[in-house]
Every structure is written in structure tokens, then in C-alpha cells.
Amino acid sequence: MHLQSLATGAAALVEDGKGILAADETAGTLTKRFEQLKITSTPETRRDYRELLFTAPGASKFISGAIMYDETIHQLATSGKKLVDALCDQGIIPGIKVDTGAKPLAGFQEETITEGLDGLRERLQRYREIGARFAKWRAVIRIGDHLPSEHCINANAHALGRYAALCQEQDIVPIVEPEVLMDGAHTIERCNTVTGRMLQAVFNELYQQGVSLEGMLLKPNMVVPGNNCPRKASVTEVAETTLECLLRHVPAAVPGIVFLSGGQSDVVATAHLDAINKLARSKPWKISFSYGRALQDMALATWLGNNQNCNAAQQAYLNRAKCNAAASVGKYTEALEKEGSRGIAGTHRSEREDD
Ligand code: 5MM
Questions:
Q1: Pairing, β 108-115 against β 101-105
Q2: What is the pLDDT of residues 69-87, one digit of tens each?
Q3: Computed from CA positions of residues 155, 156, 157, 162, in that sequence, does the dihedral angle turn out positive or negative?
Q4: pLDDT at residue 347 in the model
Q5: Cβ–ligand 1 contact at 322 (below 6 Å)
Q6: Which residue, by CA, sits nearest to atom 6 of ligand 1?
Q7: Ligand 1, atom 4, residue with closest C-alpha
Q8: 340 falls in which pLDDT band (50, 70, 90)?
Q9: Does the pLDDT value for residue 6 go beyond 80?
Q10: Is residue 87 lining ligand 1, measured as CB closer than 6 Å?
Q11: Which of 98, 293, 324 for a ligand 1 pocket mutation test, highest count of atoms within 8 Å of Cβ?
């Protein structure tokens, strides 16, 4: 195994004050996001959107790596340059989603198993040749009255272990993403229990399958109440409960934890990350972000499929990236948030005047 190179690669992704852009929506998911804003979804419009994110000037001050989808990693920017090279030119490490999605788990209604192991070794070899240096695989765990089942937890944890071992064999840093969904009316306590069970199963598999913990990153959900739970949790409660859960279940050898946002609003996801990093308890890992929606929502709503809005959309993305980068070292402030919003409003105004 490539232990040293994996450890160096993982550490680079959680360099101080930086996090990861998750831009690995499948064509189907991105089409749904586009449709909500009446944006036409074609390979070209999806390319235009990814290009504006990947070429946002100065993004590498806040963003260490970007996760792509298979379609994107093969696409060319309008300049004719490969999108993957556009990222490298910016100093951003290219990553790739390698799972093929969460599919119904046979015999277990309402639960899913993430697929994509068949042929994975060969796909990883090709992705590495194209330029990918890290990968991502997302397992999805749903909370319900009788969910998740032990079988669903174990099957998904086993697949995450097999994926991570194959990545490391090919000198690709695996991001291990066991997502416990926010959907439902469950309490924060229940999310804590289920997240803990899942993390324990995942690390058991990673040990058994010989995965080097130093050469991987964990991408978990934060511990939050379900979005229909009547009792909301304060930012401090989420931060304390999340850190407690992670301290119980994530070995100190893991270099970094990069949260998913999971449907939290962008500002709330930033506030939670900041609060976790501000907690006085000692933390053995870097704690940062690998957000999709929480980094992109404002940028997409600003772009609206119109390339004349590119600069304003890039500004919206850079603003969120900057706020999250500050939160990854516990230095996010309201002033920083307002400063960014003023910048975006200003950009919008001048774009309209130009029109
Ligand atoms: C970017 O979205 C990823 C999932 O895409 P598909 O549903 O099309 O497979 C997702 O795995 C994402 O990387 C993580 O969930 C983080 O995104 P959020 O929006 O939760 O921060």
C-alpha cells in the first residue's frame, strides 16, 4: 500500500482553513436541482455550471479539493481545457464519486444499499490516470420507527470498507461517507444513537479490511434532530452532541472529519461547523466541511442558467466557501457573513446596470 502518499494526500485535503466542495451530483440529481429553478439541464449546461464553480477566482484559499461526477471528469471547459485540469491549475485537488448510487436493499423495504463495487478496481485505475487523487462513496441510513436494521448498517459498512481498501490499493484517498438522513420526526438523541451505531460498524469494517486510517477521511452527518421533530436543537446542543458522538466512535488516527450538510440551510451548516470547532474540548482530528447544497445553493440560485450571471454566482460561492473556511478553524463571525452578503448584493446590482 501507498501509506505515505495516502497520508500526505488526506492531510492536504484538510489543510488548515480549507474544506471540500462536493459537486458530485449525478446528472439526475442536478437536473432536479436545475428544474426547481427552471434551468434547462443538458450536458452543456451542467458543464457550464461546474466550470463556474471550478474556476471561481481565488477559491483555493478556502477549498482544498472538489468532488466530481463521472460526466464532469470527462468534460472540457469552454476554453477547451479539461475541467479536471482547470481544477489543478487553481490548486484544487480533483476527486471523484465512485459509488453508483443507493439501491433498494433486497428483503428490507425502505432501506438501501450503496452499489458500485463491481469493476471498481479498474474504474479507480482509470480515474487516477485522468487525475483524481481522492474518491467518495456515500452510504445512506434512514431513521424510522423500526429503522435502520442491523443488516442495513452492516451491509453498508461492509461496502464502505471494501471501497476504501480498493481506493488505497490504487493510491487514492477514500472519503468514507456514512450519511444518517435528517428526514423524519426523530429526536437528536435518536440521531446520536444511530450515528454512533453506524460509525462503530464502519470502523469495525475498516479495521477488519486493513484500511489505513491515516490515509482516509470521514464524511459524516452532524447529529441533529429530524427535520420534522417538534423539539429543535440549539446550535450549541448540536455542536456538543456531534462532538461527543465523534469522540466516542472515531479513532484519533483519522486525520480529518469533513461534514456533509445534509439539507441544513447554508448559514446553519456554517454556524454548526463553527460551533463544533469553538468547543473547548480537545479534538484529535481536523474538523472541516465537504458540503454540496450548503456551498452551492446560493450560487445556483444566482446563476439561473444565465452565463451573464457567472461572476455574481462565483461571488456567492466564494462567500460561502470563505465563511465555511473560517468556521473550519472556529473563526466564523456575523460580520464575515454580512460582509459576504453585501458583496453579493453589490455584484447583482452592477450586473443589472450592465444589462
Ligand atoms: C452532491 O450530492 C451528493 C449526492 O449526489 P447524488 O444523490 O446525485 O448521488 C452527496 O453525496 C453529497 O456529496 C453529500 O451528501 C454532501 O452534500 P450535502 O448537500 O449533503 O452537503
A1: antiparallel
A2: 999 999 999 999 999 999 9
A3: positive
A4: 47
A5: no
A6: 25
A7: 25
A8: confident
A9: yes
A10: no
A11: 293
What is the pTM (predicted TM-score) of this model? 0.96
Note whether 262 and 179 are within 8 A (CB): yes
Closest CA to ligand 1's atom 17: 292
Task: Indicate whether residue 182 lines ligand 1 (CB < 6 A).
Answer: no
Domain at 3-354: CATH architecture: Alpha-Beta Barrel (3.20)
User: Domain spans of the chain?
Assistant: 3-354
CA of 30 to the centre of ligand 1 (A): 10
Q: Which pLDDT belongs to residue 230?
A: 98
- Radius of gyration of the chain, Cα coordinates, nearest whole angstrom: 19
Q: Omega before 148 cis (within 30°)?
A: yes
pLDDT, tens digit (0-9, with 9 covering 90-100), for 142-201: 999 999 999 999 999 999 999 999 999 999 999 999 999 999 999 999 999 999 999 999
Q: Which amino acids are annotated catalytic?
A: 177, 219
Enumerate residues 6+ apart whose C-beta is below 8 A from 355. Answer: 308
Contacts (Cβ under 8 Å, ≥6 apart) of 176? 137, 160, 163, 164, 202, 206, 216, 217, 218, 219
265 pocket-lining for ligand 1 (C-beta < 6 Å): no
Q: Give yes or no for residue 291 CB within 6 A of ligand 1.
A: yes
